[in-house]
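Encode chain A's predicted structure.
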Amino acid sequence: MNDAVAARLIDHVMRREAGELDAAARRAIKVFVLDTLGVTLAGRAAEWAGEVHRAALGWGAANDARALGHDTPLPAPAVAFVNAYNAHNQEFDCVHEPAVVHPMATVHSAALAVAERRGGVDGRSFMTAISLGVDVATTIGCAATTGLKFFRPAAAGVFGATAAAARLLGLDRAQTANALGLAFAQCSGTMQAHREGKPTLALNIALAARAAVQAVDLARLGFPGPAAFMTGPFGYLRMMEDGFDLIAFEALGKIARITEVSHKPFPSGRATHGGVDGILQLRNQMKFLPEDIEKIELFAPPLIQQLVGRPLGAEMTANYARLCFQYVGALAAGEGEVPLDGYSAAATRQPARQALAAKVAVIDDGNPDPNALAPQRVVITLRDGQQGEVTVADTFGAPANALSDEENVAKFRRCCAHGSAPVAPAQVDAVVAMVADLEAVTDMRHLVASMTPAARR
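Encoded structure for chain A:
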């Protein structure tokens, strides 16, 4: 069965050469490799991360690879699973906003596990695979013309992760086609977990990364996958999205989508970041104290209401709180930051935070674009009648309002210092230097080894 879109994706994975990445793409890859390494390490301290790793330990032993921050080797699919869960479990990983896809959590996790298992994968080859994987995942996401039905970061992410892994393993065209078809056979991701604020949301990402490794392993042995996995009668676009436009696929090979990816400067749902940015700007301008606030109003597109307009709860889980703008906005207004440790049961139940969060409201501004995350407008009214207002057109962390190199490295250091097993400063410096010159890395196993607990001893 013919599927021109599937063929176009396969062509893209097969044709790009390592030397084709321009300076902007190379820089963006390094930025988000470092970022993803950091958030994955920080994720070890998050809720349920220990249980996820212990479960993976029970899935068999192999000397394939190691999850970041762990010494025990595991099969590559299990390593991809653990790393991907940790990358997304604190809502701190990067996102491609037009696609509504978190590409690096899946793509990087699968690619790193495969690279370590294979051995001898140099930095240039790894960078090419990352770029291709991000292209595939985000282009599929950009094709959607309706809001999220399935959890797109996982549902589209599995294709990007598979593309990257296929490239690293040197699969031929037929094998790559089968791998992507086999990825579709495992494609999943429920938005119900997002609605309920359950850790299953990050598990969706983990399952996608693991599925990618399983897909390439089967395809390498000749196992066939569905050919029309994109536009067949039961293909991805017809089954997983309510509407799509194939024009997005015309950009393959013309745009390095990694350059369009946004940082997440705050550990919370990206849909909270425009409001947080606005609140922090007004906090600096108005110099208010938490007790001065009468109300905080966020006027934002419908997707913001859908994703983070959920009601404040007296006993919220950490996952729910990260996706509740009332709570995240109160953290920003009250603390002047959104701390990584601001989501424990004790933190979310603090009476002062709960009282301030109750003054925060998300209001649908009627934007007709179902996937729009901006612009957003924040209005803060104080008890004395003073009012401040700011419009956020480009959310902090977006390409048009990007983190500086210094801010990117500072975030990485913050992540490495988080939790009960912080990474030593000298070790952090070594990783920063290695990623900055990723083209010179002769074997990606050296990068992984530098981040294991054994390397600290």
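The two ends are 56 Å apart (CA to CA).
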